[in-house]
């Protein structure tokens, strides 16, 4: 690769099926020529779609991006439960579902909308006493995780169709970070008494970063480029352009006597991204400084 790229920035990857998020990170490390690459939230190997990666200084943005909402398109198969709540797990129960009333199916999915208490799938990356839940499952342990509050902002049932004795349901949704779409499939299947699991999952957006701006790894190998860190910050957060005096205060992490509505990206007069600030009392204080 001969192209030169900004030293720090984001890469929005359209992940292919069969790859882990770590596989994608390893490939981007080679393309970017740096070890300092991280991602803003994992995608299961089965899943495809938007995976946001940070390179060099932009890795410090990732923790803030992980808190944003996400969009998905998925296919839920009703009539079969699996150990992983998706197609990669072993079947644990099969109940004919093709005869389910479509109105009842749609109503069961509608119950998943709003602020809900969701039990994460047992093969999640959540740590239990210092060990990932999925590793405990692989080691033969019976893992039951505690319910956590999540928000499904909207969920649309796009299609309902019989497939043999099963019923496949295509859905699109927008949800808070930490929501497990596999758990929605599991819970809807349980609600209808037939079991359910995911057969397809595609992440369509992470905050402002959507599929329209994502590139496959093959495309990146042909022409690698980063979204400059300043552009990434402006896309993800409200922005405030500062004068030279305030910019100097930011460079040393001082509080600013300016009004902000929330976490805000602040910039020097020449457009350089300086920091994330948030309101605290009567002043704005640094969340993270990037200079």
TrEMBL record:
SUPFAM superfamilies: Pseudouridine synthase, PUA domain-like. The active site is at residue 44. It comes from the Bacteria. One of its GO terms (biological process) is mRNA pseudouridine synthesis. Transmembrane segments: none annotated. Residues 182-225 form the tRNA pseudouridylate synthase B C-terminal domain. CDD domains: PseudoU_synth_EcTruB. Keywords: Isomerase, tRNA processing. Pfam families: TruB_C, TruB_C_2, TruB_N. Responsible for synthesis of pseudouridine from uracil-55 in the psi GC loop of transfer RNAs. Belongs to the pseudouridine synthase TruB family. Type 1 subfamily. This is tRNA pseudouridine synthase B. It comes from Nocardioides luti. The lineage of its organism: Bacteria, Bacillati, Actinomycetota, Actinomycetes, Propionibacteriales.
